[in-house]
Every structure is written in structure tokens, then in C-alpha cells.
Q: What sequence folds into this?
């Protein structure tokens, strides 16, 4: 096993403080594997770290390598692999009960939750545990497979809702996650999928990903509120308070709402309306075995994510890429290449 490698990487040290620098890659454990990264996707959390120097209650305490949507190759045999950014402990009560996304000791790529922080995957080389590496068909383009992580989030959310066969579904928020939820709902058998977003470009993307219609929630949509709601299941992927309220009104009595988007601060919930309609409200956080499911769906062509790919940059232009990704009026999903 190679003991030391110098690797170019993208580090953030505070708000609007980004640099391409060098880090040392060194396997520590016998089950560590070195992966040569070829491509990465910029996520909303990466944009938050760049714009604000943190995310939620977690601020950067020292420089950290960004990125958790990455694919690469194994240097020894050139096998293409998707890299699962989750590294659960496999020993706590949640891991042992099959709920590794709730791991008490999770180490997730590119996260400032712990101190020292957990470096991410925007690096020429990364060291991961062997169970984080999922081989896939070498003929699948990396720009397709790098969607495995956000697609895993979408599939996990769909699994939280139960069967969607023949169901009418609302998906609010049509960014990359929301649009992939649309595609996953279609794959899961939903009979009608309405996407809701205030951005016209996002609504267009949702249609390309399989939505039967796309609406602007700022318009009048009383038809969805009549008779205690229209949708069997609603997926809320924006985190906007107004979107949460829209979902509560538009989801029919005894229906289900799956919350994916993170709200800024505490979200006021109309409890009386909620209990009177007997709604089920479920959270969806990251994923468990859905990561490998996402790899196989992409490998088999069950979902084509490329309508969401709007820009590609070399990792050397990381700051321009992050600025572009943060402009939702022109960017959907931005990817970085690492010397493919």
C-alpha cells in the first residue's frame, strides 16, 4: 500500500476564503483504500461553507477540504468507483439496527460538525474505508455517476414515504435534490408528480426529470387545497417555511409529508391543522443502503441525471465554480474535474 501521497485539494477556511493547496494522503488502517478522484459535484452545503464559513450551527474552526459527491478510480487496476461519503462507526445502536445514517459517531465527508473537521473529497486522492467504495461499470461516464450521492438522498426520501404506486405526489423545491426526487418518484410508480418552485429554470428541470407539471407556488393554486388537500404524498425539498405550509394545505387528510430540505431556524407548524388532518410528517436525512441502489440505478440507466448538469470546471477554478453554483438563476448542478 502506498504510504504517502501529495495531493492537490480544495480547502475552505472561512467565508469567501478558498484555496487550491496541497495535503498529504496517508492510509492508517489495514482496510483503508486510496482512490484517485476524477470528478465531484458541488452541493448546497459546499456553497454554504464558502459563502458563510459554516453551515447551521457549525462554523469552521480550521481549514477543511470541501466536497462529498465524488467518483474516482482505483490506481492499481483502473476500476471506476463511486465513493460513499458516509463513514459510520458500525458499532453504535443505530448502526447495528440498520440505521447507519443516524450513527452516533458518523464521519461524513466535508463536515465541520466534528473538531478536527472531517475533510471532504475535493482532492486528487482520498483515503476511505474499503466499504465506502462501490465499483461500477467503467463505461458509465463519471459525470453521470457523480450524481450517486444526491440520488441516494432522493431514494431514501422516497423510501420514507412508503409505496408510491398510483399516488399523486407534490415535490416542492426543484433544485438538484428535488428534481432527483421527481425522477425517483416516477421510477417508484407515482401516477402524477407536480413540482413546485419559484425559479422558472428549476421548474423546467423538473419537467425534464419526469414531473407531469410544474407550478409557481406564488400563483393561486386553490385547486390543491380543496376537500382537505389533493396529494397523497408531499416531498418538501426547499426548507422554505412557506413551502412547508403549502405542503400541509395541499396534502390530503391522512396523507404523508416527507421533509428533506433544512429550514433556517425553527419552522412554525400549524399544529391544529396538522392533527385535524391526521398527517404523517417524516424526516429524511442522508441515506443508508440507498447509496449502492443509486449507483445501480445510474449504472443501469434507470435515471438520466444529465439534464441537471449545467456547468463543468477544473478543480483549479474552484472559486469560480462555487460562485457559479451559488447563482441559482443560471446554475443547477456544477461539477469539478480532477484530471480525467
A:
Amino acid at each position: 500500500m502506498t504510504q504517502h501521497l501529495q495531493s492537490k485539494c480544495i480547502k475552505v477556511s472561512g467565508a469567501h476564503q478558498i484555496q487550491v493547496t496541497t495535503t498529504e494522503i496517508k492510509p492508517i488502517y489495514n482496510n483503508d483504500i486510496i482512490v484517485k478522484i476524477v470528478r465531484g459535484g458541488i452541493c448546497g452545503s459546499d456553497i454554504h461553507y464558502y459563502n458563510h464559513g459554516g453551515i447551521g450551527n457549525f462554523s469552521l474552526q480550521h481549514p477543511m477540504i470541501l466536497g462529498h459527491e465524488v467518483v474516482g478510480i482505483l490506481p492499481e487496476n483502473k476500476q471506476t468507483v463511486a465513493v460513499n461519503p458516509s463513514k459510520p462507526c458500525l458499532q453504535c445502536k443505530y448502526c447495528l439496527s440498520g440505521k447507519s445514517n443516524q450513527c452516533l459517531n458518523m464521519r461524513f465527508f466535508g463536515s465541520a460538525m466534528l473538531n478536527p473537521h472531517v475533510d471532504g473529497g475535493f482532492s486528487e486522492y482520498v483515503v476511505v474505508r474499503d466499504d465506502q467504495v462501490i465499483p461500477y461499470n467503467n463505461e458509465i461516464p463519471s459525470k453521470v455517476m457523480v450524481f450517486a450521492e444526491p440520488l441516494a438522498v432522493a431514494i431514501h426520501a422516497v423510501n420514507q414515504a412508503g409505496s408510491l404506486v398510483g399516488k399523486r405526489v407534490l415535490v416542492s423545491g426543484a433544485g438538484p435534490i428535488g428534481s432527483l426526487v421527481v425522477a425517483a418518484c416516477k421510477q417508484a410508480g407515482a401516477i402524477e408528480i407536480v413540482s413546485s418552485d419559484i425559479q422558472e429554470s428549476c421548474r423546467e428541470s423538473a419537467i425534464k426529470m419526469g414531473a407531469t407539471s410544474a407550478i409557481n407556488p406564488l400563483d393561486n393554486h386553490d385547486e390543491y387545497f380543496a376537500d382537505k388537500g389533493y396529494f397523497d404524498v408531499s416531498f418538501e425539498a426547499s426548507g422554505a417555511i412557506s413551502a412547508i405550509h403549502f405542503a400541509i394545505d395541499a396534502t390530503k387528510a391522512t396523507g404523508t409529508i416527507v421533509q428533506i430540505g433544512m429550514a433556517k431556524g425553527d419552522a412554525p407548524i400549524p399544529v391544529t391543522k396538522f392533527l385535524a388532518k391526521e398527517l404523517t410528517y417524516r424526516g429524511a436525512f442522508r441515506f443508508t443502503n440507498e447509496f449502492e441502489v443509486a449507483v445501480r440505478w445510474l449504472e443501469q440507466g434507470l435515471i438520466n441525471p444529465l439534464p441537471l448538469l449545467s456547468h463543468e470546471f477544473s478543480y483549479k477554478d474552484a472559486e469560480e465554480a462555487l460562485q457559479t453554483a451559488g447563482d441559482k438563476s443560471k446554475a443547477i448542478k456544477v461539477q469539478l474535474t480532477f484530471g480525467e
Summary: The mean pLDDT is 95. The first strand starts at residue 5 and ends at 14. The radius of gyration is 20 Å.
